[in-house]
Amino acid sequence: MDDVVRDISFGVGRSSKTRVDHDVFDDDAWKSKPLREFKKIASDQLGTVGGGNHYVDIFADEQERIWVGVHFGSRGLGHKTATHFLRAAGGKDGMDVPPTVVSDSSDLGRDYVAAMTLAGRYAYAGREAVARHVVRGILGARGIEEVHNHHNFAWKEEHDGEPFWVIRKGATPAFPGQRGFIGGSMGDDAVIVEGVDSPVSREALFSTVHGAGRIMSRTAAKGRFQKIDGKRVRQEGLVRHDEMMRWIADKGVVLRGGDLDEAPQAYRRLPDVLAAHAGTIRILHTLRPIGVAMAGKDIVDPYKD
After folding, report:
1. Is 203's pLDDT higher than 90?
2. Contacts of 38 (CB under 8 A, 6+ apart)
3. Under 8 Å between Cβ of 29 and 63
4. Residue ranges in the chain assigned as alpha helix (H)
5. Is pLDDT above 80 for 20?
6. How far is it, in rounded angstroms, from Cα 58 to Cα 254?
7. 15 in Cβ contact with 270 (< 8 Å)
8. 193-207 average pLDDT score
9. Residue 46 neighbours by CB distance under 10 Å
């Protein structure tokens, strides 16, 4: 785990410690505005892991085979791209604002779809680069199986004979036979799943979760800042550091980085979540965490992703 945090950059706005070349940068979509302006930062950040709940984990499954699990997306490229098109469409940023809708047949809509598709390819390339570096460069192993899936993405699909844009926020596709990776928390098991066909699966447009989900906000877990005698002082949150570290120790996890807002106590238990999705997915492998690497508490995460 020391090698993981030495070789891989964690946190917002970081550049990769090693140059990653990938054919994603040959895509014609980079020629359009604003993507050509974002290409350099995208190139610098490929192979980096963000802050917040983004991680690089090492697991063992029920057969003691080793898996490397990574969770992050299109990094600064995705954030900048989404922000640009939201503003171009006249929308407002924030959680409690009306949705901004554009036609996918308009010039703006077509440009956004092309940019989003490129950001998806970029996210895939970054996860692939990081996971393969850990497998080959750090563990000195040979990869025998790979599972990739997006979340927070939009797919053009046909359901019951009708075309839809399916936007899976906090969710991922789970079509019959399609495999996916679902993480728990830094001190919980993860799973490899496979979608199954059923009436409830079809009703959910063949979607499932991409993680366990929170039961408390980051601020609630860590505590709020308050001004006392002119100084910003963080008040105690709902999770204590010694409780978090006791959980991690009991699970036998080697932790690098992380903070109270990502503590296991701040998350639901994944088996309970999976039970609520019974009949839509099949669990293929249960992955026990051995090592967890995340951005440390000194890393600022302005995107709160």
Report:
1. yes
2. 76, 77, 80, 81
3. no
4. 2-7, 35-45, 75-88, 107-132, 199-203, 218-222, 241-251, 270-275
5. no
6. 10
7. no
8. 97
9. 24
Per the DSSP assignment, residues forming a β-bridge with 296 are 258
Domain annotation for the chain: domains and CATH numbers: 2-95+104-296 (3.90.1860.10)
pLDDT class of 21 with cuts at 50, 70, 90: confident
Spatial neighbors of 106 by CB under 8 A, at least 6 apart, are none
pLDDT at site 305 = 37
Token digits of residue 176: 């019959």
- Classify residue 226 as exposed, middle or buried by CB count within 10 Å of its CB (0-12, 13-18, 19+): exposed
Residue 299's pLDDT is: 65
**Catalytic site residue 210?**
yes
179 vs 192: CA distance, rounded Å: 7
Output the six-digit token pair for 121: 């390819």
Report the alpha-carbon distance of residue 38 to residue 30 in Å, rounded. Answer: 8
Residue 156's H or E segment, with its range, is strand 153-159
Select which of 151, 210, 241, 285 is catalytic.
210
Tokens of 71: 């969770």
Q: What is the pTM of this model?
A: 0.92
